[in-house]
């Protein structure tokens, strides 16, 4: 397998992961209790649909198909995330669990895109690198927003305990 083929397989895996996330996010939107978190998930769903489109574009440029690979890692992460959805916690503590599940998704994607950008750069795939970097930027923003929300929740809960 050439480096180029390894790259294609990783991009197929990312494509599978993004499609799984498109399917999973509506559940998170439905279950999140906090409005800001709900809106954040909705916004990320729109972005994720765009991530799928960008990967499709890269495959078109390379005259290849994006399908044919299942991202087992994302399957596992989302499977574990489902357990959080079934918890009967209320309010912030429930959302804190959702944020944990969503953060794992983001970090997994960030690892995949960071690797892909490094290898695509080495292969001189300039257009692909631009598209991958746009997506990586959005994944990183989402990770940061999740972290901010988590801190807000935790500050509130510390205040409540102190009162
Ligand atoms: Fe994504």
UniProtKB/TrEMBL annotation:
**Species name for this entry?**
Acidobacterium capsulatum (strain ATCC 51196 / DSM 11244 / BCRC 80197 / JCM 7670 / NBRC 15755 / NCIMB 13165 / 161)
Q: Does the keyword Coiled coil apply?
A: yes
Keywords (alphabetical) are:
Coiled coil
Q: Which SUPFAM superfamilies match?
A: Ferritin-like
InterPro entries given in the database record = DUF892_YciF-like, Ferritin-like, Ferritin-like_SF, YciF
Coiled-coil spans are 129-156
User: What is the designated name of this protein?
Assistant: Uncharacterized protein
Keyword set includes Coiled coil: yes
């Amino acid at each position: 397998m050439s480096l180029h083929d390894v790259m294609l397989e990783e991009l197929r895996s990312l494509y599978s992961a993004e499609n799984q996330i498109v399917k999973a996010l509506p559940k998170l939107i439905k279950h999140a209790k906090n409005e800001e978190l709900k809106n954040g998930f909705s916004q990320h769903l729109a972005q994720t649909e765009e991530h799928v489109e960008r990967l499709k574009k890269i495959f078109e440029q390379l005259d290849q198909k994006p399908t044919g690979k299942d991202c087992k890692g994302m399957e596992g992460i989302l499977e574990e995330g489902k357990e959080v959805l079934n918890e009967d916690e209320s309010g912030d503590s429930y959302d804190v669990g959702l944020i944990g599940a969503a953060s794992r998704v983001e970090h997994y994607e960030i690892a995949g895109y960071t690797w892909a950008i490094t290898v695509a750069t080495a292969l001189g795939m300039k257009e692909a690198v631009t598209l991958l970097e746009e997506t990586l930027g959005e994944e990183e923003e989402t990770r940061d927003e999740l972290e901010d929300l988590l801190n807000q929740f935790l500050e509130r809960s510390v205040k409540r305990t102190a009162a």
